[in-house]
Amino acid sequence: MAKTSAKQSPKGSAPKLPLSLRLKAWWEGYDVDEVARRYQARMAAHGTQQDGSGDAGASESQEFETRDVDEGTGGPPAASANWSQAKIDVAQYIWGEGYCGPGGPDYIVALSKLMALSPEMSMLQIGCALGGPARVLVERFGVWITGYDESPDLVRVGNELSEKLGMKRKAQLTTYDLDNFEGFDRKYDRALSKEALFTLKNKRAMIEAIEDKLKPGGLFLATDLVLAQENAVASDDYRAWKVGERSTPHMVTADELSGMFKHARLQVRVSEDISDTYIKMINDAWVGADDVAAALAKEPDGAEKVQVLMNEAQFWTRRKKMLESGKLRLWRIVANKKAAGPSMMSDW
After folding, report:
1. In this predicted structure, what is the pLDDT of residue 51?
2. Is the Cβ–Cβ distance between 246 and 191 less than 8 Å?
3. Which residue ranges in the chain fall short of pLDDT 50?
4. How far apart (Å, rounded) are the C-alpha atoms in residues 267 and 335?
């Protein structure tokens, strides 16, 4: 699915709106420049500054309506964990075919550079979603990947894409039920978790389950959202973000997450903050959202998809705001299993 290119606004143009409001104004037929001027006046009256990027925090945008600047819109809508076909289509418009979040092919390859992948290797992935990262690694390195995800809809569409691209055997996606999870059924040379641990209440059990099926000397790469400080959970921004996530976050700090890897007898080789890269990917993807909305509106189910796009804009604006504020961080961990020694598999 092709991604729509963005149009850059010239210097001196009208003030920018938060993305969700800009899309709402466009869809409801309002003059975007006029809505932007009214929005800026409202923000100025409340002493709020706008940086001109068009992506102000969700808490400010939720106090403003296109129809009436004096009528609020209430708290942040909770994002649904269900993936309709419209939602899957919109995600691929924004992030690219096979993706429903930040991290395209170049990023995935660079992220995995320490994994030393080869065609002789097998890899386990949790949080595989539509399988975009898995297929990139198959194409680039020839590795055999089994991906797991909680969403049957994402797995179904992901497997259709794998078959279409001739990767049905090497990029196999399947569902798992975390409420009745008993571990994985085979050994792997490598493991990958991309933003899949922060929603798990029992992260330690999952890390131990992965270690149990990792071959001696195997590598485990994880990227995950973490708390910058434990007291961040007391902030209003954190509470709004938590309510608006697709699945309830169960957050830990980077040190706590790293400690779970060590508890599972994995040796942590890399532990680093990659938040800036993640934020840039979000910004780059959403810069062309107005053009995406215009393209979606021409489709038979355009009204539904534009509404999904606006919901997704709010979702990603909230997450980006938390990262930019420093309350959340995106962390990268690379760990290896010792060449010998007993496993630490625990009861789930």
Report:
1. 47
2. no
3. 2-14, 50-64, 66-75, 342-348
4. 5
For the entire predicted model, the pTM comes to 0.81
Rounded distance between C-alpha atoms, residue 235 and residue 325, angstroms: 11
* Same domain as 118, residue 57: no
Question: Is the torsion defined by CA of 104, 107, 110, 113 positive or negative?
Answer: negative
Same domain, 47 and 144: no
State the CATH number of the domain containing residue 179. Answer: 3.40.50.150
The answer to whether 190 and 121 have CB atoms below 8 angstroms apart is yes
Q: How far apart are CA 94 and CA 287, in angstroms?
A: 9
User: Residue 318: which residues within 8 A CB-CB, separation 6 or more?
Assistant: 57, 58, 76, 240, 241, 244
How far does the chain reach from its first CA to its final CA, in angstroms? Answer: 39
CA-wise closest residue to 22 among 277, 289, 206, 209: 289
> Per-residue pLDDT tens for 9-32?
444 444 567 777 777 776 666 776
Q: Helix 132-141 and helix 152-164: axis angle, to 10°?
A: 30
